[in-house]
Amino acid sequence: MDLKKEIQKLIELQEIDGKIISCKKDRDFTKPQLIAEITAAFEEKRNITRQAEEELKNLQIIKKQKELDLQTKEEAIKKNQAQLFQLKTNQEYQAKIKEINSLKADVSVKEEEILQVMEDIDAAVKKLEERKSLVSRQEVEFKQEKSKIEEEIKQVEAEINHLQGKRDILAKEIEPDLLQKYEYLLENRSGLAIVGVKSGVCQGCYMSVTDEVINQMKLYKEVMTCPMCARMIYPQEDFS
Question: Which residues, in sequence order, are CB contacts of 168 under 8 Å at separation 6+?
Fold first, then answer.
């Protein structure tokens, strides 16, 4: 077995696996998270429209209640006016007039309040129409952006399949025991199984490697591992 050639294959396999891992992260986390973020942002904008609808609804309820109050007071005025002719004393008459005038004053206040509410409703309707128009445009933009990201996910999925095909071919060319060790490290060392040693430093954990290990590594009699992180190591300058 030409160990140097096997290490070269492992280095190439690691490069492919690194791309696969990056693509899967993009597919499974980064892009779905981006979709979640733009969806949440759009829902927040849509909630503002719902709030505007609720404000308009509340104003319409207030207007209806004030109109009912006004109607009640106007009916009370008519009732009291009808009673004027039934009173026998001037004192009773004056008291009734005072009551009627008080009710008329209340009616005037209610009419002013209703006019104010009507103005508020007009403003609320205008605000709601503006919000709906804005959200309608934002919804188009949101759907376009979401569709774009979903298409990117499909492209990433295609790239993963392409890389996986290359990986399968290359893996078959690697000595089984080495491949098994590589696979184990790939799974248990954060997706990084084989790394170079540069200037006496492991590029996986960035700890110093002893001269003895470096010398053994350069003999290519066996695949050496970093004493600190246990990853496979190779002299980086030999594979530049």
Answer: none
pTM given for the model: 0.77
Write out pLDDT tens, residues 133-155.
999 999 999 999 999 999 999 99
pLDDT at 62: 96
- Determine contact, residues 195/231, Cβ cutoff 8 Å: yes
1 pLDDT higher than 80: no
* Token pair in block for residue 1: 């077995």
Which amino acid is present at 130?
Answer: E
- Cβ(234)–Cβ(194) below 8 Å: yes
With beta carbons less than 8 A apart as the criterion, state whether 195 and 233 touch.
Answer: yes
Nearest residue to 216 via CA among 195, 229, 197: 197
DSSP letters along 78-121, please?
A: HHHHHHGGG--SHHHHHHHHHHHHHHHHHHHHHHHHHHHHHHHH
Task: Read off the tokens for 81.
Answer: 């006016």
Q: How confident is the model at residue 214 (pLDDT cuts 50, 70, 90)?
A: very high
